[in-house]
Design a protein that fits this description.
alpha/beta, 44% helix, 8 strands, TIM Barrel, 10 helices
């Protein structure tokens, strides 16, 4: 996940996937429409074999397009599914997953409820920290609090920071706060114009001239 560029890169988060076959075209269009650093794959619950089969359908589209494929949790499947890492929500999940992922695979940390939690994850090898993603209940901190946390982290720490944007306006604000990556999910995949049009607007808001 290279951060040596002007402006943030994109981190796509999928909706929960049950039947990957109905999502592959949409995901392919999205990946062809923008410079995407990574895709966070969220999977509906199923037995292990079914989960790995779902990943196997999605992985060639993502990895073949040059993006990292990261599972939402499920760190025990990362090696067998041949993906690039996992995103762990909360300090406990991150701690449990570290021996399964490091040093070869991506270990992302989200669901960090305090500055201390974020610093703890960064010190123990998180490849990135994410601020502002919705919880399981759909709730998230105020956007003012998210921006404050992103700006604080970006100024003081070398570990990359991902800011989650729920609107196009939030994309631009996160870029101004110097997030290295901006995560978008429903903003893209629920847009009635389709993912290509949504990502064109997102990308425009990440451009350096939109950050000044």
């Amino acid at each position: 996940m290279d951060t040596q560029r002007l402006g943030p890169r994109l981190y796509l988060t999928t909706p929960p996937i049950d039947d990957p076959a109905v999502f592959t075209d949409t995901l392919g269009v999205a990946l062809a429409s923008a410079d995407v650093a990574a895709v966070l794959l969220r999977l509906d619950d199923a037995d292990e074999r079914t989960l790995i089969e779902r990943v196997a359908t999605i992985a060639p589209i993502v990895q073949g397009g040059g993006a990292a494929l990261v599972l939402d949790g499920r760190s025990e499947l990362v090696e067998r599914a041949r993906v690039d890492g996992a995103h762990l929500t909360g300090v406990a999940a991150f701690t449990t997953a570290l021996p399964l992922l490091k040093p070869r695979l991506i270990a992302g940390a989200g669901g960090l409820t305090s500055r201390d939690d974020a610093m703890w994850a960064g010190e123990r090898g998180a490849d990135y920290v994410m601020f502002g993603e919705p919880g399981h209940d759909g709730g998230r901190p105020s956007f003012a609090a998210i921006i404050e946390r992103v700006a604080w982290w970006a100024e003081l720490f070398e570990v990359p920071c991902v800011g989650y944007a729920a609107s196009f306006e939030e994309v631009a604000a996160l870029a101004r706060a110097h997030a290295e990556f901006v995560a978008v999910g429903d903003l893209v995949f629920a847009d009635r114009r389709g993912p290509a049009a949504a990502l064109a607007e997102v990308t425009a808001r990440l451009m350096p001239e939109g950050v000044t």
